[in-house]
Write a structure and sequence with these properties.
about 120 residues, alpha+beta, five-stranded antiparallel β-sheet, 3 helices, about 35% helix
Length: about 120
């Protein structure tokens, strides 16, 4: 029985478990199959990466203070973060990986870096 490439239909030569005739067909097939979910994931990861870079650039020491205006001006999006940390006192820190922030009064934020 002759196997055919899942992408282009050409004859497959080689290992018995091969599904594609070459890497180009394999990549084209996987890109087509995963296109919808990849856009959401790619856009979310890009936003998280941007938020991380902003926090990292503003927080050169382990702890600093900044304004909401400065974060927004840099392009920070408060809707994207990776985790929350609630202290015993009930204070909620938002984290983008190891870079975090805590909302203070008067539109100020404390920026922190989580220790490894």
């Amino acid at each position: 029985m002759e196997k055919q490439c899942l992408e282009c239909g050409d004859k497959i030569v080689g290992r018995i478990d091969k599904k594609f005739c070459n890497d180009g067909c394999r990549n084209a097939y996987n890109n087509r199959v995963n296109k919808d979910s990849k856009n959401l994931i790619r856009n979310t990861n890009n936003r998280l990466r941007k938020n991380y870079r902003i926090l990292e650039s503003l927080n050169v020491s382990q702890k600093t203070k900044t304004s909401r205006a400065k974060l927004i001006e840099a392009g920070f999006d408060f809707n994207y973060f990776t985790s929350l940390y609630t202290t015993k006192a009930g204070t909620v820190y938002y984290f983008v990986y190891d870079q975090g922030y805590l909302a203070l009064e008067n539109d100020y934020f404390v920026l922190v870096k989580r220790e490894s």
